[in-house]
Design a protein that fits this description.
GO molecular function: 5-oxoprolinase (ATP-hydrolyzing) activity
Strand order of the largest sheet: 2-1-5-4-3-6-7
Pfam families: Hydantoinase_B (PF02538)
Helix content: 25-40%
Organism: Terribacillus saccharophilus
Radius of gyration: 25 Å
Protein name: N-methylhydantoinase B
Distance between the termini: 45 Å
Amino acid sequence: MRSNPAQLEIMRSYFNAIATGMGHVIERTSFTTFVKESADFATALATPEGEFYMYPKSVGVTIFLGLSLRKAIESVGEEIEEGDIIITNDPYTTDGLATHLPDVHVFKPIFHDGKLVSYAWAFVHVSDVGGLVPASISPTATDVHQEGLRIPPVKLYRKGKPNKDVLAFLRLNSRVADLNEGDINAMVASVNTAESRLHRMINKFGLNAVQNGIADLLEQAESRSREVLRQIPDGEYSFADYLDDDMVSEVPIRLAVTLRVKDGEITLDFSDSDPQTQTAFNLVTNGQKHSFLYQGLINFIITSDPHIPNNGGITRPFSVIAPKGTLVNPAYPAAVGIRHSITMRMYNVVLGAIGQALPELVPAAGAGQSAIVVLSVPQHDGTRNMAVVEPMGGGGGAQQEQDGIDGIDHSSGFLKNTPIESLEQHIPVLVERYEYEKNTGGAGQYRGGHAITLAFRILESDSMVTARGMERFRFQPWGLAGGQAGQQGYVVRNPENEAEKLPKIDVLRPAKGDIISITSPGGGGFGPGYLRPVDKVVAEVKDGLLSAEQAAEAYGVIFGDSAVDEQATNEARSKMEAAKNEAWDFGAFRSDYESVWTAEASAALAVALRSYPANLRNDMKRQVHRHFEVQKKPLTKQDVLAVLRQITGEEANETVR
């Protein structure tokens, strides 16, 4: 350690003030509601090698901590000089720094006496970068080029002067050029602010002290991260979960991990995960370590050690195996717009694997979605206005001694909601209902978080609604330690008048006057429901968050004419206690699915399909699933490989483990 503890804490406070201040600049100068209200942005400081050494906890989204600028820096293609500002949104040339095209990143080198000391970095989810649909993200896109303009790492500013050619390209490739430019300018102001404040810090403490502080904070985070990981007994722990489908078929998408833990180091092996999809459910990592693969593990560490420095050193004990051709390392030009669905499900998967070893330390599954609902309306000049109606989170998973958080899930990165007043001022829409939905949190001694229902009325003809990241419409958020699974999400048109249940939204063209009602999933419960204090059940019934019928069924709390029937309640709870409680409750749909599609069969199919050309894998997967539609017994590896041989007319790859 180069700094003494007092010096290091001073350095940490100064770095945090700079990085947090960058975020406040974006909050105060950005143009769009999704940035200034919902806070879909982030800021940080990085080493000259591209590792984040300060990532603030209190401003912006929290899920980019483990990313690296390294590949983006290398891909600029020319020397990076003082006054330059780099811009990019391309996953494939940055090893997934940019995770999909609307996420625009800028970073600026900070020099002192000609020596590169740091990078200031910011990202914003901009409103539109072209592509198939307004807001650029369609779940059914089949090619990254359908998703909008790709910007390799290029200089937005060169030696302090704007690169007008790049700015012109950006304006011509967006439906809302002024909004985009305003948000990008907010990022420029942010990194410029960081530069001036870091110079002030160097002048105050000296370059050597600042550089020592950077190195020491990273090393401290690494050391403390290893200490937390040593809580997990050495061994291998496997878990899997599912996305509902790929939006063009009903075949589930399986995400699987095996954690190999040894003395404070951990390898995350995603080899048994499904092949890349033909639609936009892919995450570009180029096989490198990536924050979106192990956000659950990061949160486990920072929850176990709340005062650990929040920087990339936390992830130094991690290594990753992500074979090429899996949906967590897809081959170009796979579409990537819905990559956050993978992030949120992988959050559940990694925590589920840790839960094999330490079930008392992890929460049940949360909603596992953050559906971004966008409304686009025509304007009189022929252009279109658009706004995020709401980022639709759902209930959080319960954990030991704590109910799940209502309306927000840990895995969402803590996006904020858009205030209704701000939304209705920005775009013609009328929000009819925005509230917690009763009976949606999984029952338990600690119940899952309640879901949200959003209902909004369309006020203009030729309006379009798009959504990304709608999940858990079939596979429920799982309950843990005897807790019940949370409820699935759903969408309804005109819920009060001839209600029509809709599928998950890709592009919806409602009529003027239609009401679109979206209910997110609820979180899973923790512990048996019969152990929940009766007064808490009664309070939720009185608050309208739980029906009397659900109180009786899930908690054994029986109401008489005007109060709880204590005798009936004691009898009901005794019967529930006598019944067998499974440690994990995955919900009926997953239980039925896995009664046929065992872990062995699913992993065998996933690995075998990677030996075939990428353009054939998804169709072959669907054919295999169709073959077993009427199957009633559990499948084996041999069953799956035999059907593959029938489909292809050749021997399947026998390298499957």
